[in-house]
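Bumping with the actual sequence this time:
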Amino acid sequence: MSEEPRIPVAPDEETEIPESHPRHESLLARHRIEEGVEKGITSLQGLIAQGRGEAYDYLLGERTIESADAAARAAAAHFLLADHPVISVNGNVAALCPSAVVDLAEATGADIEVNLFNRTDERMAAIAEHLHEHGASEVKGLAADAEIPGLDHARATVDADGIHAADVVLVPLEDGDRAAALDAMGKTEIVIDLNPFSRSPQVADVPIVDNLVRAIPTMAEHARELRDRPCENLKTIVEGFDREAALAAAEGAIRSGATK
């Protein structure tokens, strides 16, 4: 009797990762980051950042806790009330959930802008093309005709009609110093970060402590449910969100070692 074919240790395609594997979602995310490095979308540092995030997600039970869902709902309301909302995308975001980013932009009317710490023309073009391949009609970030004050690295470089002009910015997997700089510009800042102790969620108007691949689809789902509501209703949701309580709830879940 012939042996069953074995699943490769390092699958070349997403479809080669068996859904029955207990770490399927984790392996899928790692595969996408690795593939992103090969395509020039992500940097090697992105692999380290992914591993750090996975550690916090494991402590959260790899689930969207109630406070994170409430934060995503408040974030969706902010986007629907905004005059010029923008979704900031880095290499890991583009590799992990490009279709979800495009879906959120369509659900809220937001712009998409690529912004990188390790910025090169080649990486910027590769990420923009990757997003186009997943349905984006327009991707900002290549004009690079404005700067965020107070930063002395490449993440300061933005589009004048994009992040620089935005009133509400979603900054998933954000660098803490740029998060603080955007806050200093007076922008409403929504941060997705699995570490509630880092500077980015600490300065955010709406910190969503959740895995990116869950948070962005959740935000889009809330946006579709809310987009026909009157502005006063949306403002009530925004005003009723308690950022300190959300951060405290996330910290509590992590410290208690929540499980599925």
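The tokens above came from a reply further down the thread. The first strand starts at residue 85 and ends at 89.
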